[in-house]
């Protein structure tokens, strides 16, 4: 008994969610989605990739589909679909052997004549049974064996179509079979009325009151009843299509004979036509190969085909490769039937993960379109920046501190003694406090407080240079082809996060360029997808960079260029002009913009990706012209180089002056 009077009972865990399972790693999932986007996917595809792959300790859709395929292979090896014919043939041979024994014991001309008839029976089981329909059996046992062939097949066919009919056929007396015939007639009447568009609500209710025991799934309306029947009929159709043409012809003939004996053949044909009319799409499935050794009777074979149909649908649902697909499409009951409750828990975890990404504000859906949120972008930038700082060897670079203190910037919270010539602001409160403490034990003739030089303190301030930074990133398709797209985006987002969180006084503008250049926010860059366009318009990017820098005349101007190709496009009368190989006109236009930025005082540094000789010649010459530097980092270290250069460049010539 607990102190509060509650009783607790403990026992072994049997089933249900794992009580020790780790909680959903939604933040990790958001990072995975973000990284997939940086690699060129849109948000929807990135989320889909996450669900496909799963997380470290949670299987994804791919793992569930793998189990589906394994289960499907097991079923395909379970047995032989021709087993119904094989069993019918064996039973017929047994009946004929019993009949021949009886004929051999009779010394009559009729017995000899009937022996000749049996000897001339065709090899086909269905054809032989057609001829035996009018045969006058001498052995009651043989006749019963023969009738049991048709009765057994009839029971299997009806039980496959109507799950609750087996009970009625356990004692197939005339009264029981009449109930089946009445149900079939009423069912076809109901379906025909529904197909004509009539209101069948009351007719359906009357039908279920009268024949509900044939339908243990208890459909709630006509449409649900039709769906159930159509699925069963589709299984039967797919079973027949899975057989060889000879097997199919034989089994269809046997079924026709079995149903005709009890006046059900026409009703079954009418039911098939009604379902084909009401649910045509469900009847179009292809046959399925089942190549096992064990013979299956009709009911067993139909069950295998039904399970394979379930697995085929589950594989499609879990694949999520069709328009408008969601995890809500997955048939949970079918999944549990095929793979067990653990698979349904895995699916539920993926559903919760997808929902939590939206609920916790990492992705949002607007107008049916998924997009990344600023929260997810911040987390992605923070994660990338943390990795970059871990790679930067110098802690001084990582902390980005100037050793000097200044007079008109942010206070650090520390205080310094005042000296003659100090530029920092005097802290009046702390100065007076020092004077009070110094004179606390003195006797004073008045209330005046006298200050001395040692009482004065100044507030320590931190000199922080301000920079206007233009980060020019190449968006040409070669960046995707050479796997440079993701490192480029990671670098830009890390720099944006650094500016946003530690250097808010700086003004950063990301400019993406291919055939044209455009200013991009960090979020827009994260979501930009590759375009199959030719052209590297560095001139336009430099032009936009100059406009950005001039909007911040009091800041240190910094231009950082990340590219993997020489300029091949420039503006002519405001329109892009592409040439390959690059032309002197394109080079001149680009260099003209570089010169404009140099005259403005901007530091321009280049980060060359790849070993393109044309790019190397152009960048080296341009850097010498503008006094910039050229870096050739590996993709892994691109972010480290760009961030380090930013931290150094923002202390540039104006800050040092």
From TrEMBL:
<dbReference type="InterPro" id="IPR036465">
    <property type="entry name" value="vWFA_dom_sf"/>
</dbReference>
<feature type="domain" description="VWFA">
    <location>
        <begin position="466"/>
        <end position="647"/>
    </location>
</feature>
<dbReference type="InterPro" id="IPR002035">
    <property type="entry name" value="VWF_A"/>
</dbReference>
<protein>
    <recommendedName>
        <fullName>VWFA domain-containing protein</fullName>
    </recommendedName>
</protein>
């Amino acid at each position: 008994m607990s102190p509060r009077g509650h009783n607790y009972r403990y026992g072994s865990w049997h089933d249900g969610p794992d009580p020790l399972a780790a909680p959903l790693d939604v933040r990790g999932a958001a990072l995975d989605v973000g990284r997939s986007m940086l690699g060129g996917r849109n948000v929807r595809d990135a989320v889909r990739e996450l669900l496909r792959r799963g997380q470290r300790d949670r299987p994804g859709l791919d793992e569930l589909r793998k189990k589906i395929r394994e289960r499907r292979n097991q079923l395909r090896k379970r047995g032989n679909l021709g087993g119904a014919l094989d069993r019918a043939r064996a039973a017929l041979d047994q009946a004929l052997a019993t009949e021949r024994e009886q004929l051999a014991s009779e010394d009559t001309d009729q017995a000899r004549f009937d022996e000749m008839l049996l000897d001339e029976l065709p090899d086909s089981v269905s054809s032989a049974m057609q001829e035996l329909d009018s045969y006058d059996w001498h052995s009651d046992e043989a006749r019963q064996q023969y009738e049991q062939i048709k009765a057994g097949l009839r029971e299997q066919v009806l039980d496959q179509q109507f799950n609750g009919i087996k009970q009625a056929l356990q004692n197939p007396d005339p009264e029981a079979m009449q109930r089946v015939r009445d149900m079939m007639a009423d069912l076809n009447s109901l379906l025909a009325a529904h197909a004509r568009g009539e209101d069948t609500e009351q007719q359906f209710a009357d039908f279920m009151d009268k024949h509900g025991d044939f339908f243990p799934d208890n459909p709630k309306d006509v449409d649900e009843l039709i769906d159930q029947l159509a699925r069963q009929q589709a299984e039967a159709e797919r079973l027949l299509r899975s057989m060889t043409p000879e097997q199919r012809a034989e089994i269809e003939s046997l079924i026709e004979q079995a149903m005709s004996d009890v006046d059900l053949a026409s009703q079954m044909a009418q039911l098939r036509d009604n379902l084909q009319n009401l649910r045509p799409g469900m009847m179009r499935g292809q046959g399925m190969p089942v190549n096992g050794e064990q013979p299956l009777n009709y009911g067993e074979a139909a069950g295998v085909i039904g399970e394979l149909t379930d697995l085929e649908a589950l594989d499609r649902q879990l694949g999520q490769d069709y328009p408008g697909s969601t995890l809500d499409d997955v048939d949970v009951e079918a999944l549990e039937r095929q793979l067990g409750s653990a698979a349904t828990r895995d699916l539920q975890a993926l559903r919760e993960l997808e929902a939590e990404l939206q609920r916790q504000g990492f992705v949002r859906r607007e107008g049916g379109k998924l997009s990344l949120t600023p929260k997810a972008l911040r987390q992605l930038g923070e994660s990338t920046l943390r990795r970059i700082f871990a790679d930067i060897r110098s802690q001084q670079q990582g902390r980005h501190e100037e050793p000097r203190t200044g007079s008109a910037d942010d206070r650090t919270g520390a205080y310094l003694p005042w000296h003659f010539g100090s530029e920092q602001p005097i802290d009046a409160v702390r100065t007076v406090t020092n004077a009070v403490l110094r004179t606390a034990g003195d006797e004073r003739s008045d209330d005046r407080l006298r200050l001395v030089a040692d009482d004065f303190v100044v507030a320590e301030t931190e000199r922080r240079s301000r920079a206007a930074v233009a980060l020019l990133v190449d968006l040409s398709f070669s960046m995707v082809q050479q796997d440079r797209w993701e490192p480029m985006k990671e670098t830009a987002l890390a720099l944006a996060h650094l500016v946003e969180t530690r250097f808010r006084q700086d003004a950063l503008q990301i400019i993406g360029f291919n055939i044209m250049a455009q200013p991009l926010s960090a979020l827009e860059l994260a979501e930009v997808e590759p375009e199959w366009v030719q052209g590297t318009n560095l001139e336009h990017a430099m032009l936009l960079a100059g406009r950005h820098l001039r909007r911040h005349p009091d800041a240190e101007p910094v231009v950082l260029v990340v590219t993997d190709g020489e300029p091949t496009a420039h503006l002519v009368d405001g329109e892009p002009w592409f040439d390959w190989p690059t032309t002197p006109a394109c080079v001149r236009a680009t260099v003209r913009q570089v010169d404009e930025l140099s005259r403005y005082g901007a530091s321009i540094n280049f980060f060359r990706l790849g070993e393109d000789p044309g790019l190397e010649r152009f960048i080296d010459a341009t850097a010498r012209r503008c006094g910039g530097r050229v870096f050739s980092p590996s993709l892994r270290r691109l972010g480290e180089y760009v961030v380090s250069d930013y931290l150094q460049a923002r202390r540039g010539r104006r800050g040092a002056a």
